[in-house]
Amino acid sequence: MSVTAAHGFRAAGITAGLKASGTPDLALVVNDGPEHTAAAVFTSNRVVGAPVMWSRQAVKDGVARAVVLNSGGANVCTGPGGFQDAHATAEKVADELGIGAIDVLVGSTGLIGVRLAADKLLAGVPVAVGALSADDAGGQAAATAIMTTDTVPKTAVRTVGTSQGGSFTVGGMAKGAGMLAPALATMLCVITTDAVVDAATADAALRAATRVTFDRVDSDGAMSTSDTVVLMASGASRVTPDLDALTEAVTAICADLARQLVADAEGASHDIAITVTNATSEDAALAVARAVSRSNLVKAAVFGNDPNWGRILSQVGTVPEAVAPFDPAELDVSVNGVMVCKAGGAHEPPEKVDMAAARDVTFTIDLHAGDAEITLWTNDLTHDYVHENSAYSS
Amino acid sequence: MSVTAAHGFRAAGITAGLKASGTPDLALVVNDGPEHTAAAVFTSNRVVGAPVMWSRQAVKDGVARAVVLNSGGANVCTGPGGFQDAHATAEKVADELGIGAIDVLVGSTGLIGVRLAADKLLAGVPVAVGALSADDAGGQAAATAIMTTDTVPKTAVRTVGTSQGGSFTVGGMAKGAGMLAPALATMLCVITTDAVVDAATADAALRAATRVTFDRVDSDGAMSTSDTVVLMASGASRVTPDLDALTEAVTAICADLARQLVADAEGASHDIAITVTNATSEDAALAVARAVSRSNLVKAAVFGNDPNWGRILSQVGTVPEAVAPFDPAELDVSVNGVMVCKAGGAHEPPEKVDMAAARDVTFTIDLHAGDAEITLWTNDLTHDYVHENSAYSS
């Protein structure tokens, strides 16, 4: 179950031939309504792909009837020709579905700087339209077709009762395994719901959800050029949740998918949850967590199952006081619940920390400066990460 | 030749027994005058070692007669006891030399969070004093004793004639192979000169020199807690260079040592010079270069000898417009002189770039936005880097 779990949606995933591997590479998600509300958030990178340029414009009116996504090429840094390819893809989908191209969003992932095989992509569109299905298989096929170095498709579903009676469903799919960083982990993500939602509410719910989920995944510090998260609402449930209820459900889906991205990050052997407590603000806590998550020395130590709190403290100390006030002599650091550093110095012996037993590792950094708290997710730095990212272009 | 090349200095390097390896770990550099001018710059990390806390105070009057440095322990996050150890080390050196402790600077490098074997360190001081020598061997022994994961000692010397006649010499030594990042590469560095220099001139020359040398090395993005660069002037040459001449000579020594640090960075197989041209300001150029230097994807690609300009452009795009104005559609990128990206898109085929032939790799990123230019140095991300930094605590 994924994007087809909510009523009013069909999906497909097929092989258009964009990938040398011959695995599925073209996904289509269609909103059959009765409503066609849509919202989207995109990468904040200044270098963006043609699909992002197209979709930013197309979603501005708060309406979308379909999203077409391909792996096998990011269509980034491809000039006017690349933009034409994205536009032509939307037109082709629109023609096949009998809708307007401006209601078709486009997302692409793969290598930067290479033109797509547009003929194959366009020829694949009617095949995808023909394969559209409202059942589980359609959603699963779409989730599979957007994979690049992902080892598993990522999907999530929640059905939520409302205080007014009735229930609505939210489902989603995502891909992303490298270039996971703030202002959206690198990823394509489509979320569908059968709730009745107006465009402003959809936009507010999606922004609130991504801010505390995908924006708090920082696997390798590399912000993508193509990040796109789309929310489409069909209204088919006839249930109208309030903003809080919708936000909560969308956040749950985003959080679930975000954790799946971290769990499948390229070459990683550990998922690291960095919790910063007692900060003066959420932004302060995030800046500290971000500094720690960006340290190759910290990440390599985790790969070596070494609770090296000195490297953690050293990173915490790089955050300017204006950003995150704290007294270095008051910092506590726990790794997997063992307080290895207390008041800025050694405390429990590192030998008490078992990092080899599980994939999950937790850092808790207590700033003793306020009462704000956040958690950021990252991964360790491994031989496999270096291998995957040096052995071939991606 | 290193810190003893300039007249008026003696140095020693001995084994105090702080390192399990039994290799030299205690260095001493003494300024015999007639003058004892000193300046120093330290890490901007908020978590700093006891030696940095001590030396910041000790150098405030612009006078230092000796610097004592140890490897085998950073004396960071060691509390009041750690500060006492640093203080006691300065006192011991002062007693042995018949000077005041406030004229002795201290520098330490090694593991964070562990108290030094202070008894061994203090017992080593008289041995080091006894070994002091004004000849090459003394300078070389000191440069060797400060090594940690460095594979070779780093030294540099320049003798400079002045327009007024006469000449002065500047010599230096440095250590550092990991945690190389801005606001000083991680390192201990001592520079000596026999020029006649007042404290304000020494400070100005040292800050100007480090800003364009050590501050432009960003090997692995990890700012140390212990970075210290000391300049001592004996006046023994009786030659008084002006600020420009002194700055130029000190900058040459710092640049030479900084390049040696990059060349010996832990696990690296390539040195990468990132030159950003036609930026609106030096700060804008530096922000762009820094963003590229921090990308594990870029660094892993270099390890794989892959001129992956898409990853470079993606990093350039992460710099906010307010920091570095440029048009993404105008960006040119050359790797080893081959323009693989022109006007934001593919240009020369990547196959034309030979990265395997040499350790040095150059990126040139033309922003087409102004006329400022800088070069930042970094390294590639390799299996050996991950191995060195995961296999043991450091």
UniProtKB/TrEMBL annotation, chains A, B:
Site (Involved in the stabilization of negative charge on the oxyanion by the formation of the oxyanion hole): 109-110
Cell compartments where the protein resides: Cytoplasm
UniProt-annotated catalytic positions: 186
Enzyme Commission designation: 2.3.1.35, 2.3.1.1
Site (Cleavage): 185-186
Reactions this protein catalyses: N(2)-acetyl-L-ornithine + L-glutamate = N-acetyl-L-glutamate + L-ornithine; L-glutamate + acetyl-CoA = N-acetyl-L-glutamate + CoA + H(+)
Keyword terms, alphabetized: Acyltransferase, Amino-acid biosynthesis, Arginine biosynthesis, Autocatalytic cleavage, Cytoplasm, Multifunctional enzyme, Transferase
Pathways involved: Amino-acid biosynthesis; L-arginine biosynthesis; N(2)-acetyl-L-ornithine from L-glutamate: step 1/4; Amino-acid biosynthesis; L-arginine biosynthesis; L-ornithine and N-acetyl-L-glutamate from L-glutamate and N(2)-acetyl-L-ornithine (cyclic): step 1/1
Biological function: Catalyzes two activities which are involved in the cyclic version of arginine biosynthesis: the synthesis of N-acetylglutamate from glutamate and acetyl-CoA as the acetyl donor, and of ornithine by transacetylation between N(2)-acetylornithine and glutamate.
Oligomer status and interactors: Heterotetramer of two alpha and two beta chains.
HAMAP family per record: ArgJ
Family: Belongs to the ArgJ family.
Protein name, entry field: Arginine biosynthesis bifunctional protein ArgJ
